[in-house]
């Protein structure tokens, strides 16, 4: 009875597991059908399970056949009383020998499941092998195309490991059976070890040796990833000692395998032992001892001369793998003779100086424009738009819904509070008289104050914080946005989500999410749709997990709709001679991913159709990628050089800008990322997007910039720009300063700011009065043949989260000044040389909302109290006067 109950429980658990797995597979199929990528889903699913089934069958048959060959020996182990074909294995039990195949099959199946459970994870390596593409470049050692290492070698390594594991498992299992059945026999005056299993064991051990020979062959190719030498990749010792040793071991393994095959007929048991010991000894001598002797006696006494050609290989292939060989090098002739004519020529640069640092701006946006506690700005993005016909850099952020901040009733979370709403857009270089940002787009519903921008679909159903599933088109009106003392509601009109109107679908989704209310809710209608996997990051990865994604997706406003753009990379860790960086040693930005924030549609645009990894993936998934030409023109205007790729290239270029192997060997010209001060901490300068006019160019453009300094030095030696606009997209330019010219680095400018008595005194004074000074990004701005430095200064009260941009520091040559505005600082720097310089005028006078006026009034009142406690009566008077002005505006606005 107990056995029967146990069987029922096991069967029930298996059935429940099967139902849940099949349910998830079916719902995932519906999800992929919604986003129009069923081919990707089916290709992945079929390949994964196909690999599992094939490897299981191969493993199963091999183990099963080998067990059948040991049938008689197992009988001897189990036999206590033999009666023809019946074996008594327990006091009350008798086992028929005819059942052995069945028991062998069960044992083989269990072992196969255990040992092949990993194989499905190699489905992509197998698909890449079958659909491989050439790189068109050969390695310098074996003269094989790079595609062999990227697409074929990983497959061969998987196949080798699988076969070796299968044969080794069989060998160990068979050895144990033979050893237990009859381990030692004394014949004719000598001991005979495992006398009855020598043929079987010889054959299996021969297979192991043949596989080891293949393994040595694969190890030869793996020498191109050796870390032994002074540079990554095959070194002198690897080529002149390790490689010959592996070739010898290859032939030794083949020879020993043949000898073991012959032993099937010769029956010399010592061959088994000698072959095993001989290969281990040869591996130690040829694989470790000999290379170590060569390294110490031949390489180290004359290291550079021995390693020179291999250093050259490392430099060439590392630069190729990271795209560093495409960097254009130009000399930036520093003259420090900036004139009024130069200033006028570079007005486009001055009109877009990024005064607003994204970190304090996020806090300011949150205080002024989140409107309600359940809205949140997750991050600040930088982009460029034509505002009133002028090319302007802006900072923008979407107002997402934070579901953790709403009432947690089921109807609220799943049916009513379904989406975020709207966005804010601010110019990077404009502030109000109170030190707050000017807004081109603000408020709820969106108020647009700039020509060239429009918002028609402000609802955000798919974003960076949309982690929960929701159901739309129900009987419950969806909350859209707060409206005075009431709320505005809406009904979803898009195509996103999966139909959930019928009972069967509701039951399946209830099982998927463990939420019975999906089944019993009376608010779900036949038109209702369920949206899940709405987070754009997980949504994109679910479709294409084989791509690597940039850490910063950014929002784009195009024709009144909101879209997310995320850069995707094709990578590998199998590029020969290329130095690894955080687990990869090859990267290309081959794909741009676009997600509609309203409908959730996902499009993968192939921006580099000739890139071999992307080309291979296109063969595997023909429907995944769209040609870049099909991307809407409005979205093309907002693609940008990816920041993560730029950071990786910048880090690698600190060393790999050195092309001379002697200079590289001695690290004579090593660079580093310079340091800056932010909020009192010294940190590396981050790459930053800005609109500047590059030398020898006639128009300003959107670029990603990074300055460089010599290692352990504070001066600046060069700067690099990643171009983002039009036909120049993707080009990298490095501007090198002449070595006989001193160019201040960011840390030196920061030190000069600290050393300026007036600036330092003022900053110290603000820090001591209940406020915190935040020094923003130090911007390095090339203009004509000069370098201008700009650093914004923010002030934030200790009890406030509303940073204000109160000063701008400008440094040029030996002059450092701090003024209220950029134009005042520029005019002071060039006193007596230039007529007054005016930066881009505001689009229009900023009209603050009632909520913003209340926030500012509270902030001014708090500051007035702080000034009063400190005895700063002049400051107290200024705060009260400003407060009266704000209260007057509030009174006027409430009368409207």
What does this structure look like?
This protein has 896 residues and is α+β, with helices and mostly antiparallel strands. It folds into 6 domains: 112 residues, no CATH class; 172 residues, no CATH class; 217 residues, no CATH class; 177 residues, no CATH class; 105 residues, no CATH class; 46 residues. The chain is 44% helix and 21% strand. The strands form 12 sheets. Strands 6, 27, 30, 31, 32 and 33 form a 6-stranded mixed beta sheet that branches. Strands 21, 22, 23, 24, 25 and 26 form a 6-stranded mixed beta sheet that branches. The longest helix is centred in the first third of the chain and has 36 residues. The protein starts with a helix and ends with a helix.
Biggest sheet features:
6 strands, mixed
Helix proportion of residues, in percent?
A: 40-55%
How much of the sequence lies in strands comes to: 15-25%
Number of strands: 38
Question: Mean of the pLDDT scores?
Answer: 88
- Radius of gyration (CA) equals 35 Å
Low-confidence stretches: 80-95, 841-845
- Total helical elements: 26
How many domains make up the 3D coordinates?
6
| Coarse morphology | globular
Which structural class fits the helix and strand makeup? alpha+beta
Report the end-to-end length measured between terminal Cα atoms.
Answer: 84 Å
């Amino acid at each position: 009875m107990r056995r029967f109950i146990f069987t029922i429980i096991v069967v029930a658990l298996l059935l429940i597991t099967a139902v849940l797995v099949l349910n998830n597979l079916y719902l995932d199929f519906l999800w992929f059908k919604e986003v129009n990528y069923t081919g990707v889903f089916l290709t992945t699913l079929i390949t994964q399970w196909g690999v599992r089934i094939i490897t299981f069958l191969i493993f199963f048959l091999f183990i099963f056949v080998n067990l059948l060959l040991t049938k008689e020996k197992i009988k001897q182990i189990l036999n206590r009383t033999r009666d023809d074909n019946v074996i008594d294995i327990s006091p009350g039990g008798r086992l028929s020998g005819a059942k052995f195949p069945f028991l062998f099959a069960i044992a083989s199946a269990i072992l196969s499941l255990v040992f092949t459970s990993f194989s499905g994870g190699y489905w992509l390596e197998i698909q890449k092998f079958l659909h491989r593409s050439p790189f068109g470049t050969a390695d310098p050692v074996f003269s094989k195309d790079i595609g062999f290492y990227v697409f074929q070698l990983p497959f061969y390594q998987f196949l080798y490991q699988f076969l070796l594991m299968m044969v080794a498992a069989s060998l160990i299992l068979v050895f144990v059976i033979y050893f237990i059945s009859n381990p030692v026999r004394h014949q004719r005056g000598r001991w005979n070890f495992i006398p009855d299993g020598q043929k079987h064991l010889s054959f299996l051990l021969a297979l192991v040796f043949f596989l080891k020979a293949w393994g040595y062959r694969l190890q030869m190719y793996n020498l191109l990833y050796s870390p032994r030498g002074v540079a990554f990749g095959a070194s002198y010792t690897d080529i002149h000692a390790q490689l010959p040793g592996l070739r010898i071991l290859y032939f030794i393994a083949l020879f020993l395998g043949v000898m073991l095959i012959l032993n099937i007929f010769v029956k010399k048991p010592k061959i088994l032992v000698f072959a095993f010991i001989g290969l281990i000894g040869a591996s130690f001598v040829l694989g470790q001892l000999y290379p170590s002797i060569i390294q110490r006696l031949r390489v180290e006494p004359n290291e550079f001369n021995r390693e020179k050609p291999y250093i050259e290989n490392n430099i060439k292939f590392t630069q190729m793998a990271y795209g560093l060989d495409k960097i254009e090098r130009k000399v930036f002739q520093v003259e420090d003779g900036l004139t009024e004519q130069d200033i006028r020529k570079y007005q486009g640069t001055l009109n877009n100086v990024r005064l607003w640092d994204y970190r304090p701006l996020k806090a300011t946006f949150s205080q002024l424009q989140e409107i309600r506690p359940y809205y949140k700005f997750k991050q600040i993005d930088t982009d460029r738009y034509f505002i009133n016909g002028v090319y302007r850099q802006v900072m923008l952020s979407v107002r997402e819904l934070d579901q953790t901040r709403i009432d947690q009733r089921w109807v609220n979370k799943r049916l009513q509070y379904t989406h975020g709403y709207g966005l804010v857009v601010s110019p990077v270089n404009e502030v109000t008289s109170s030190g707050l940002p000017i807004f081109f787009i603000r408020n709820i519903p969106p108020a647009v104050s700039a020509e060239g921008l429009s918002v028609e679909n402000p609802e955000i159903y798919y974003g960076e914080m949309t982690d929960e599933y929701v159901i739309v088109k129900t009987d419950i009106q969806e909350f859209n946005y707060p409206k005075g003392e009431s709320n505005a509601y809406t009904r979803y009109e898009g195509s996103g989500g999966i139909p959930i109107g019928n009972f069967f679908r509701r039951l399946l989704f209830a099982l998927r999410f463990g939420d019975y209310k999906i089944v019993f809710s009376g608010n779900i209608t036949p038109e209702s749709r369920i949206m899940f996997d709405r987070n754009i990051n997980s949504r994109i990865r679910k479709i294409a997990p084989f791509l690597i994604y940039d850490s910063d997706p950014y929002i784009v406003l195009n024709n009144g709709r909101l879209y997310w753009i995320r850069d995707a990379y094709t990578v590998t860790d199998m590029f020969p001679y290329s130095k690894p960086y955080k687990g990869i040693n090859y990267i290309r930005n081959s794909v741009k991913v676009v997600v509609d924030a309203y409908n959730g549609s996902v499009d993968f645009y192939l921006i580099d159709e000739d890139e071999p990894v992307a080309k291979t993936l296109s063969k595997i998934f023909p429907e995944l990628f769209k040609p870049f030409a099909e991307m809407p023109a409005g979205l093309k205007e907002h693609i940008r050089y990816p920041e993560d790729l730029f950071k990786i290239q910048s880090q690698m270029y600190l060393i790999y800008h050195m092309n001379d192997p002697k200079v590289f060997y001695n690290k004579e010209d090593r660079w580093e990322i310079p340091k800056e001060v932010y909020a009192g901490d010294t940190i590396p300068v981050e790459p930053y997007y800005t609109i500047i006019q590059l030398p020898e160019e006639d128009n300003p453009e959107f670029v990603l910039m990074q300055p460089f300094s010599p290692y352990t030095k504070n001066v600046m030696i060069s700067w690099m720009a990643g171009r983002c606009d039009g036909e120049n997209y993707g080009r990298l330019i490095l501007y090198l300063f002449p070595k006989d010219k001193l160019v201040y680095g960011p840390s030196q400018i920061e030190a000069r700011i600290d050393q300026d008595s007036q600036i330092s005194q003022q900053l110290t004074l603000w820090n001591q009065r209940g406020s915190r000074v935040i020094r923003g990004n130090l911007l390095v701005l090339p203009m004509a043949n000069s370098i201008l430095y700009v650093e914004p200064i923010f002030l934030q009260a200790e009890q406030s989260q509303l940073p204000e941009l109160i000063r701008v520091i400008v440094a040029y040559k030996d002059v450092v000044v701090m003024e209220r505005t950029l134009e005042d600082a520029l005019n002071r720097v060039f006193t007596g040389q230039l007529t007054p310089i005016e930066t881009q005028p505001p689009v229009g006078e900023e009209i603050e909302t009632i909520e913003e006026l209340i926030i500012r009034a509270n902030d001014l009142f708090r500051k007035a109290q702080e000034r009063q406690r400190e005895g700063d009566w002049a400051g107290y008077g200024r705060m009260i006067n400003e407060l009266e002005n704000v209260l007057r505006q509030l009174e006027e606005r409430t009368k409207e």
